[in-house]
Amino acid sequence: MINKHYFVSRKGLSSLIKMKETLKNELYRATKEMGESVKRDNDLRENPEYMQLQTKISYELPSKIAELGRVIEKHILIEETDEIKNDIYDEVVPGCQVMVEDEDGNQRLFSIMGYDESEPSKGVISYLTPIAQLLLHKVIGDQIELKFQGKNLLYEIIDIRRSPELN
């Protein structure tokens, strides 16, 4: 993912830092475990445990640690953006809660949050998700088209406010 910056909330940044530390500890443990596996078995080509650990140590964990490092290094705190600091909700930006309404009057509420901060069951979505991408920079009265259960549904933005997810 090539982005110049990544939006995260304070809570999200704290989670990312903890996740990175957890993965670094897991990499250390897996490396140690791989060393023990080498001591136990001379023919490593036949050792599936060793092969699995090698993949994890060589690719999976370092890749995720590096990705989290980039996000942490290039983050923008949602709470520090001008719109959120100054309570300006003219358009949809990360940190907003958006109410949309379909043609039948059914309403849906979305909180647009930061990188890796999605909880769809609560209506919380990352600004990187397809739905959030449709909503970003729209204003009250704008319409978006969402595909839901094979149907295209037209929604109108009826309210934009600060997300309760921001403390």
From TrEMBL:
Superkingdom to which the source organism belongs: Bacteria
GO MF: DNA binding; RNA polymerase binding; translation elongation factor activity
Record-linked Pfam families: GreA_GreB
Transcription elongation factor GreA/GreB C-terminal domain span: 90-161
UniProtKB keywords: Elongation factor, Protein biosynthesis
Coiled-coil annotated residue ranges, if any: none
BP GO terms, sorted: DNA-templated transcription elongation; regulation of DNA-templated transcription elongation
Name by which UniProt lists this protein: GreA/GreB family elongation factor
Source species of the chain: Acinetobacter johnsonii
